[in-house]
Amino acid sequence: MNNILIAIPQLEVHRPPISTAVIASVIRSAGFELKVLDLNIKLFQQIGDSAYYDFSSVWEKVRAPTDQETKQLEKFIDNELLPHCDDNTRLMISVFTSNSHVFAKMCCERVLSKYPTCEIVLGGMGVNDIGEKMIESGLCKYVIFGEGEQTIIELLNGNTDYPGINNKANQRQVNDLDNISFPVYDDYDMSAYDYLYKDRAEVNIVGSRGCVRRCTYCDVPSYWPKFRYRAGQNIANEMINHYEKHGVTQFYFTDSLINGSLKAFRDMCDKLANYNSTHKAGFKWGGQFIFKPQRQLTDDYFDMIAEAGGEQFYVGVETGSDKIRWEMDKKFTNEDIDYHLHHFNRVGLRSFFLMIIGYMTETLDDHNDNLAMYSRWQKYVATGTIAGIDLSTSLMFLPNTPLERMIESHQITFPSYEYNVVGGSQKNNLIWTSALNPDLTFEERIRRRLEVHEYAMKYKWPIWRGPQRLKTLYDHSLVYKEGIARRIPLMSVN
After folding, report:
1. Is the pTM value of this prediction over 0.90?
2. Could you tell me how far CA 161 lies from the centroid of its own chain?
3. CATH 3.40.50.280 spans which residues of the chain?
């Protein structure tokens, strides 16, 4: 069997795709021959930076591709994928996110039109939404739901009844992450991944799956109900392996929380610090970080992070109100934030604040706490300790979250009309009101979001993706003001 594994758009273009790198390593460790194709970076290289991102609205399923775009993508698939296939091919497609749906469907159609006996297997988080439809339509033979490291080997060995294969309700999770083979990047042109830093590649690291916290608005636990983490030394060994094989010194952790397990995090830092000291590797790394209650930490905790190469961290601060943060089930205070910022500043670590404006119980006093935050911590912006802020759109009730389960108890109502979105029709999840907090109308949430933006500008807080978020709010404000459905061209995977 001619086994081919492909990474497809849209993925980032400054880090090689870890999903295919892990699966490739697992497959080869089991004794199977495999060819890996990185179509994501190939497309980026062929059509160029600007043109590539012109496809963003297609990848994100805001609109269907134009005839010209369709022909361009089909030609690309015909030139870069079909020559590697034949009637005896098993084509495995990593559908990492919903942004990959369009290209995955086009790949299946083009390959099957020329090689109808080709066995197509889909996997990755992005198949949860389309997997069953793809099987029904005959565009693939197998879909792996859930974590695929063990499941793909069972499939390759002919055990097609294994849980998770074509069975969305019986997904598998890997309990012992330390037993998974390190991702291998021998199939990738590492020099192509210098888009962000120009002088060096950056590699993703997965130190854990799931999350130790249960923030009310987050849907991560619905995908990974159980928090699992690797031993800290195992994580450090992987980073050292990438350094020794490819010279990689820059890493980004994809974990929900890089320091979810304090012990594993300390053990990782200890080994990296020792390696940095003896080999002068110059590791730099970052990821999503949780500010813990200061009683759990000592001052040398921050020295340890800096010595290990920690550089920049994204922190879900969410609000300047202790009350609202507690109601989100985030158990740290403004005093804890100040403690972290003080020590971040002392040892030269950078932070990026993630903010949610207009939580369902937020009062005007809570909002004023948000505004006060900008003047209170302005000194850390001046030193670069706070390097950016991501202001969210108005609060959404994501499916399968604690927040969604609070809709009835908090007397949340949505507009009676529905509006068209790509893939189907649904209620507007942004335009809601709460009978328990009637002052927090949709218009008021927009006003508060814009006022926070103004304060951030006033105090020179750098805003990440500010203009895009403002446009989203503007679009939704028009929907709200007009009280009518906004029509968006539909794009279906059926």
Report:
1. no
2. 30
3. 2-177
CA angle 69, 75, 76 (to 5 degrees): 90
Structure tokens at 391: 């202001």
Topology of domain 2-177 in CATH is Rossmann fold (3.40.50)
171 burial (CB, 10 Å; 0-12 / 13-18 / 19+) is middle
Q: What kind of architecture, by CATH, is found in domain 179-482?
A: Alpha-Beta Horseshoe (3.80)
Of 408, 409, 388, 407, the closest CA to residue 397 belongs to: 407
Burial call 347-379: b when 16+ CB within 10 Å, e when fewer = bebbbbbbbbbbbbbbeeebbebbbebbeebee
Domain with CATH 3.80.30.20 in the chain: 179-482
Run means of pLDDT, 10 residues per run, the chain, 494 residues: 94 88 96 96 85 78 86 96 97 92 96 97 91 94 94 96 90 89 89 64 90 91 88 97 90 94 96 94 95 92 96 96 96 96 97 94 97 95 95 84 94 69 56 93 89 91 76 68 44 39
